[in-house]
Amino acid sequence: MSLDHPAAKPHDRLAAALSQDMEAVNTLIRARMASENAPRIPEVTAHLVDAGGKRLRPLLTLGSARMMGYGGGHHVHLAATVEFIHTATLLHDDVVDESRQRRGRPTANLLWDNKSSVLVGDYLFARAFQLMVETESLRVLDILSNAAATIAEGEVLQLSAAQNLATDEEIYLKVVRGKTAALFSAATEVGGVIAGAPEGEIAALHAYGDALGIAFQIVDDLLDYQGETKATGKNVGDDFRERKLTLPVIKAVAKADAEERAFWSRTIEKGQQDDGDLDHALALLDKHGALAETRDDAIGWAHRAKDAMARVPSADPELRAMLVDLADYVVSRVN
Amino acid sequence: MSLDHPAAKPHDRLAAALSQDMEAVNTLIRARMASENAPRIPEVTAHLVDAGGKRLRPLLTLGSARMMGYGGGHHVHLAATVEFIHTATLLHDDVVDESRQRRGRPTANLLWDNKSSVLVGDYLFARAFQLMVETESLRVLDILSNAAATIAEGEVLQLSAAQNLATDEEIYLKVVRGKTAALFSAATEVGGVIAGAPEGEIAALHAYGDALGIAFQIVDDLLDYQGETKATGKNVGDDFRERKLTLPVIKAVAKADAEERAFWSRTIEKGQQDDGDLDHALALLDKHGALAETRDDAIGWAHRAKDAMARVPSADPELRAMLVDLADYVVSRVN
């Protein structure tokens, strides 16, 4: 099956349609992650960048700019910016979460040390800002610096919210908007901005990225309880073991009786976990239909993403169709 | 003695002359370190910001802008930017160095945790970029994003250079330019840029900040071996115990015989330290005149700073005189 075949995965079709641009992004990333003075920087970064990852965020920027008819070269800078910000947050997240695996490989904090992960992350943040300054668009700088602040804020909020049973769906959504959706929505919005799209269409691109990012993170949190290690690169129940209160558990806690509440309090809030607790947690999620409800929420956000995209008149309807399909694809992982 | 008395400390005279501007900077810092969503952010930041510190970097920005006749308000944003970048690097440094004390108080990573220090540092970096975007000066954004990259690069370089006896004065200077002087020189340069100073004068302001920052860091490294805990807030020999190769030791290593080299290799490279090793290290520094030579280097850089500043015609000669005196003051701590 060829990549432009309609049955190919939307993400792969998008990557194929934008392959020339994406090659330019990869070349720029490689050039800018270098450091003459500190050879450890490209070592650490290459470890992560070469591991692949889906390059979803840069594709969103390239796709948004192109579908709005952009003919310049700055979308490449912005796509690299977005990927650098993402890579920097991964490096810092792995320190924060004390992770040992990322994209199927040992994490940088394990291979080198926490110090390298913190400082190389800082370097990539700074490199990201240099790249966006080169676009000479103050509006783009405004959007991306706001996104960077929202990301960090979401991550800090998560520190206190994740192990607190009082965390409700509203707080969860704030965390998700911060840690994931802020960069998705900035990625699509800046594509529209550099293409000189009208305000209403820029707003729709932003809304698309926001809803897509939320759907993406909800699916991620859902797969943690029902995915297979092979598909996700994570083990079932990692979030439970790491005492991270995500949407499935929030829904189960909301319907918990006193005994169930005590269970969640012991395992998540106090972190006292024994053999069999994960199975019991899964049984409670099932009893209250928490996984099905979480899945419905993800599908709802995917629909919002598609609706927003449908409002955008595009110079390249095929590209737009791929972005619409991408929203379905993101939730198809749990269909 | 009043603060405008010539015998008052130059740093205090500068702070007094710029007290109104500095008040505006403090107000802006307090407003921007807030976070409605994540209350831990202002807690962590306030712990560090309220501890005082000398506010040297924002004073450099305010002083440079004012001495070049700047009459607008953006110097306040830039001074807050520079302080935020500095505070963010302190938070990350304390994680990297596993420090327990900063400015005479327990560090944030000790009071909260490493996670909070990493993520709140990221938040402050992002806030710094937001602040500088508000100046709407692409040149300022270029200077400060380059400085941020140079700082991170210097810190990463230090990771590998600090415990390697092959590190010579050239590499040391690269590290110092990165970790300290890059922010000093950016702080003074952007003051000149927003004031619309001619290119030659902007270059001189940059050269002043660069030389001042180098002098400042060399003095810091020297005080680690000859200061008193009361004056520095650090204990004599901290760098030795943390196996950080700084200028005094680099000079002693360069003159070491085989036996002395083995001593440095054991204590710094291998980190095998026993009782009495610090005393032996101090004796070797003394034997080779390493502390006196380091002091001479610091004085040399202070002179370069003064020479650069003397080339700048100023709308406010008194302010310029304070900045000249500041260079003497920085090295007076070891006179």
**Radius of gyration of chain A (Å):** 20 Å
**pLDDT < 50 stretches of chain A:** none
- The CATH C-level name of chain A is Mainly Alpha
Q: What would CATH call the homologous superfamily of chain A?
A: Farnesyl Diphosphate Synthase
Q: What is the quaternary state of this protein?
A: homodimer
Termini of chain A, distance in Å?
A: 22 Å
Largest sheet of chain A: 2 strands, antiparallel
Please give the order of strands in the largest beta sheet of chain A: 1-2
Instruction: Provide a count of the helices of chain A.
Output: 17
Count interface residues per chain for the largest interface.
A-B, 44 and 44 residues
Provide mean pLDDT of chain A, rounded.
90
Task: Estimate the helix proportion of chain A, in percent.
Answer: over 70%
What CATH calls the topology of chain A is Farnesyl Diphosphate Synthase
Architecture (CATH level 2) name of chain A: Orthogonal Bundle
Function (chains A, B): Supplies octaprenyl diphosphate, the precursor for the side chain of the isoprenoid quinones ubiquinone and menaquinone.
Protein name (chains A, B): Octaprenyl diphosphate synthase
Family (chains A, B): Belongs to the FPP/GGPP synthase family.
GO molecular function, one term (chains A, B): all-trans-octaprenyl-diphosphate synthase activity
Structure description:
The structure is a homodimer of 335-residue chains. Chain A has helices at residues 10-17, 19-32, 40-49, 56-67, 74-97, 108-111, 114-133, 138-161, 169-194, 199-226, 229-232, 238-241, 247-254, 258-269, 277-287, 290-310, 317-332; strands at residues 101-102, 105-106. With 335 residues, the first copy, chain A, is an all-alpha fold. Chain A has a single domain, classed as Farnesyl Diphosphate Synthase (Orthogonal Bundle), CATH 1.10.600. A two-stranded antiparallel ribbon of chain A has the order 1-2. In chain A, a hairpin with a 2-residue loop joins strand 1 (101-102) and strand 2 (105-106). The two termini of chain A are 22 Å apart. Chains A and B meet through helix 5, helix 7 and helix 8 of A and helix 5, helix 7 and helix 8 of B. Chains A, B: It holds the Pfam family polyprenyl_synt. Chains A, B: One of its GO terms (biological process) is isoprenoid biosynthetic process. Chains A, B: Supplies octaprenyl diphosphate, the precursor for the side chain of the isoprenoid quinones ubiquinone and menaquinone. Chains A, B: Keywords: Magnesium, Metal-binding, Transferase.
